[in-house]
Automatic annotation (TrEMBL):
Cofactor(s) annotated in UniProt: pyridoxal 5'-phosphate
The protein's name in its UniProt record: Diaminopimelate decarboxylase
EC number(s) from the headed UniProt entry: 4.1.1.20
Organism in which the protein naturally occurs: Pendulispora rubella
Pfam families hit by this protein: Orn_Arg_deC_N (PF02784)
């Protein structure tokens, strides 16, 4: 089954998967393994469909792409060229946004623990908004802006008090998480705003979570936050001109109409299946959030309205090419396939038991009817692509063509978000390269492969660090 819903640009030709005219075997030969392959046209399509859905209801709409999902400079450049702004989550991401020439008017800055240096950078740059996570941060921004004689745009991040139906580590919209401020903090926000005329209140920010599959969560968050914004303006005189509704739209993790099962054919839990299907109608969500504005007596046309998607912009636009380096036979009849691609390359497999769909690159026309265990090269039992530790969120085998073996190319789809960004050098493994297949079909490097010298470049005594 081809992964059309996850990576529509992947086509099978003579049994081999292709991106545009490039066979994955040629790409792997030319750029090495592991290599991330991004489709520029898929990024464009993802951005355009979000813009189409939201612009219908929000005339002053902008995507502030969550660069934490993938902040490769070429990826950022392309996204910014599509009239998007950027959401930075650190001084480093702010630096990257500035480096590619993003206008400060199109940069917002998230994060729970912004340092003095980071806040200073944002204030000097004159960014569109600090999404302010706490009262103490609001005061810190006020102190710094005052000292610099500058004005800082601020948008308190409020807690909408909803659950998105995602993995616990991605639920950020409830009061038990570390993010944002409860509405009870708003009187103190008002006092701080009054104390610091250098703080310019622009509106509110909220965010439900990531891979949010409960459509109602977005509308419910907006009903609460827009009503609060209206009340806040009426009672305090601080009138919002902007609303940031956050990100979190899901992507499909499995091909349409399929669902991985355990070796004995038994299904995964229903909540896990919902997460894997990742289906949500963005046009419906946009319409339902807009209805929440109307219900609160606010007209979206009077506001700059932002969303901050990451995964839904870049997740389906990237695949990862890997190589099977070993195959071993087990007496229970389920063979192991050992690849060169571990959780150092896709850490969320370990942290969240995240499911990345795997297909054969060079046996694409053969049925994926044989159960395998699939492991990476790392020295951990948990370095596997199936349920190896009994937590029950992943299938206990992976299904691939029967003759899959050494040298084959396994294509891990839906790896555009939160992979390249989270890679590590664990076990002395250089981080993977990345290439982009441009809209005109040309393939270009966008990140070189790390070398062994890179591995030691920061260590004193290596002869490289000085
Ligand atoms: C504040 C904020 N905005 C946006 C995002 C992007 O989320 P996603 O990549 O799921 O769209 C995140 C990630 O969780 C976030 O914390």
């Amino acid at each position: 089954m081809l992964p059309h819903a996850i990576a529509p640009y992947l086509q099978e030709y003579r049994g081999v998967l292709h991106v545009a005219d490039h066979s994955v075997m040629d790409l792997r030969e030319r750029f090495g393994s592991n290599v991330f392959v991004f489709s520029e046209s898929q990024i464009t399509d993802n951005v355009r469909s979000l813009q189409r859905a939201y612009q219908r209801h929000y005339p002053r709409f902008r995507i502030m792409y969550a660069s934490k999902a993938c902040s490769n400079l070429e990826v950022l450049r392309h996204i910014v060229s599509l009239e998007c702004g950027l959401d930075a989550n650190s001084g480093g991401e702010l630096f990257k946004a500035r480096l590619i020439g993003a206008s400060p008017e199109r940069i917002v800055y998230n994060g729970t623990s912004k340092s003095v240096d980071e806040v200073t950078q944002g204030v000097i740059a004159g960014i569109r908004a600090f999404n302010v996570d706490s009262i103490s941060e609001l005061k810190r921004i006020g102190d710094i802006a005052h000292r610099l004689g500058l004005t800082a745009n601020v948008m308190p991040r409020v807690i909408p008090g909803v659950l998105g139906g995602t993995v616990a580590g991605f639920e950020t919209g409830h009061v038990g998480s570390k993010f944002g401020m409860p509405f009870e903090d708003l009187p103190e926000v008002v006092r701080v705003l009054r104390d610091y005329p250098c703080l310019k209140f622009r509106g509110f920010h909220c965010h439900v979570g990531s891979q949010v599959v409960r459509a109602e969560a977005f509308a419910s968050a907006m009903r609460t936050v827009v009503a609060e914004m209206v009340r806040f303006g009426r009672e305090t005189g601080f009138m919002a001109d902007t609303m940031n509704m956050g990100g979190g739209f899901p992507i499909p993790l499995v091909p349409e109409g399929t669902m991985p099962v355990h070796r004995d054919g038994s299904p995964l839990p229903e909540d896990v299946q919902a997460l894997m299907r990742g289906t949500l109608s963005i046009p419906d969500v946009a319409a339902e959030t807009a209805a929440a504005w109307n219900a609160a007596g606010a007209d979206p046309a009077d506001f700059d309205v932002f969303i901050e998607p990451g995964r839904s912009v870049i997740g389906t636009a990237g695949i990862l090419l890997s190589t099977i380096e070993a195959r071993k036979t087990r007496p229970d009849g389920v063979d192991w396939l050992l690849t060169d691609c571990g959780f150092n390359t896709m850490p969320e497999t370990l942290w969240y038991d995240w499911y990345y769909h795997i297909v054969s690159g060079n046996r694409a026309s053969e049925p994926a009817d044989t159960a395998f265990r699939v492991g990476g090269p790392l020295c951990d039992t948990g370095d596997s692509q199936h349920d190896e530790t009994g937590r029950g969120r992943l299938p206990n085998v992976r299904w691939l063509p029967k003759n899959t073996g050494i040298g084959d190319c396994l294509v891990v789809v839906g790896t555009g978000a939160y992979c390249i960004e989270q890679q590590s050098n664990y076990n002395g493994r250089p981080r993977a390269a990345a290439v982009m297949v441009r809209t005109n079909g040309v393939v270009e490097w966008i990140a070189r492969r790390e070398t062994y010298e890179d591995l030691v470049a920061r260590d004193f005594g290596s002869g490289v660090a000085r």
